[in-house]
Fold each of these.
Amino acid sequence: MPVVGLGTWKSAPGQVKQAVLAALGCGYRHIDCAAAYGNEQEVGEALALWIGPGKALHRKEVFVTSKLWNTKHHPEDVEEACRTSLAHLGLSYLDLYLMHWPMAFQRGKDLMPRREDGSICYSDIHYRETWMAMESLIDKGLVKAIGLSNFNARQTNDIISMARHKPVVNQVECHPYLSQTDLLSHCRSVAVCVTAYSPLGSGDRPWASPDEPSLLEDPRLAAIAQRYQKTPAQVILRWHVQRGVVCIPKSVTPSRIQQNLEVFEFSLSKEDMKLIESFNRRERFIVPTVEREGKRVWRDAEHPHFPFHDPY
Ligand code: A2P
């Protein structure tokens, strides 16, 4: 799996095709997708221009990831969900298929099934049952490998203890404000690779509020970047790469897409690696929240498989 890939969450239809084309054109060989991002068809249009007989790339030269959404956890729904992503992406197999979250939502077409009061309708399917259905996708040749996303250490162990095909990746939010040191060393000890989503702090997350700190504008990063004659984004991405974390920066801007891949020709000193580690605020940006009694609270906190009650 190439250590830097293109993220496609939040890349609007109408923009994501150009982003994928720009990425493949400047050397990216790893594209991170998900059914829930609602743009796999357009990603597929870009892939079709690059991959296949008579095209610039063989299928095996590009690493493509997709994710099973929460409404498709029922074992009877898993294969169809995977086949839908494959059809949208125009591929015959995925390199990696992840369970997007450990929580299952009610089955159906609606990505966010809700009651009248706005609360989410959950399902009591256990993520272990879903995992077994995902294992069959390997047996059928639809995916090369399977993994997890947003699983805590305990849930990761839970899957490992019962898996016939082990999870190879846990994709989690990770950036200098949430450095995930404990989860990282745990995953390393059980041979699970960590991929960082929102590696640049996802300043464009839909619920960002102006009083939250902006990682890319942190003056301490600007100072480091200036010393290396790099941009803050490149310093952050280099930090991920140097600590052995795969990262999938999202951008729809060709110059940034290119810049984000140019992180292999310099290295950060040990001191700067530690300095960036010290920016950790243990703060999650990517947890869906709702307003309850005038307060913003974690939306799925009461779900029995909500991952973020554990320390890591
Ligand atoms: P855009 O897509 O408009 O280029 P993350 O990967 O952490 O989710 O961050 C994505 C956000 O970071 C997007 O707003 C994206 O903007 C922005 N971004 C991506 N690469 C860079 C870069 N090299 N410099 C500045 N901002 C960037």
Amino acid sequence: MRVAVTGGAGYIGSHTVVCLLEAGHEVLILDSFANAAPDVPDRIAGIAGQSAQVMRVDITDRPALTDALTGFRPEAVLHFAGLKAVGEAVEMPLEYYRVNVAGSLELMRAMEAAGCHRLVFSSSATVYGDPDVVPIPETHALRPTNPYGHSKRMVEQVIEDWGVANPAVAAVNLRYFNPVGAHGSAQIGEAPQGVPNNLMPYVAQVAVGERPHLSVFGDDYDTPDGTGVRDYIHVVDLAQAHLAALDLTGREGGVQAINVGTGRGYSVLEMVRAFETASGRPVPYEIIARRPGDIATSLADPSLSAARLGWKAERDLEAMCRDAWVWQSYLAGKNSG
Ligand code: UD1
């Protein structure tokens, strides 16, 4: 198949492009490279033994998107491009709605112009807000608590409405839980700019000696050890879920939302210990106050993904930590050399 991938040079997008190429698909990466290194497409080609086509395009630039899609004539689009930092979204909501919401609208209009109606969208478990029950089923109420989460839910809604208006639309909104790890080749991974917002890259930077200690945001949650519990998923498993979702859009029309998680949770302190074991390095930490907006526990109910996608996560916590560590060690060597 011909598949266009917005944000295809980013963290999750790049891993998915590797899987697409390895499965024999023809890929066009559309990326602004605002938050991706220019050599990512070459690295992808090095891993997959095949190259993707690449166009530098901003997701809000409809004429450029339309040119790209009418030229490439994709059978489906995977849409990763967007802004993703919760704190930044609270400070710059208009920018988040412009890029995430208006950008997605421009993409769908460009897809219409190119006659393409198969779409897989990168949504987030953040659309559930503070959950009433865990594990969280897709039927749970949707009440995001910040502009980032609202932007994800708004795009889901637009896609649902597009599906009502146009029977040709076949789309899947994938609600990611907590993606971590990196490709086992250590050629691609997450490279946060500045201080990492998320736990795993922060822990990795402490283990490698770039930061003195981890601040654990609260140990008085209603969880077994008092620290927050999350459903971490290896980024390569997450990438594979996109291929399964792509297949689903070929079999079935309409729009569906599907969780992507493992259903298994780990606390912050369990993550610290697993990372210490994988890296052989200490990860000193200090307990500080809760981070505003954080929740105690977030866990996917993975039964719909198993039933609809015929997919389930295969990589365990040890693989997540090992691959994150090998990637972090590579980054540290690159930065110092
Ligand atoms: C966060 C976002 C969520 C977003 C997701 C993307 C918030 C409130 N939520 O989720 O909307 O979809 O990232 O991956 O920002 N922790 C520490 N110290 C740290 C960093 C994190 O103790 O330096 C803890 C957190 O309190 C939490 C766990 O580690 O219990 C995971 O945190 P994080 O990786 O930021 O993910 P989420 O909070 O689940």
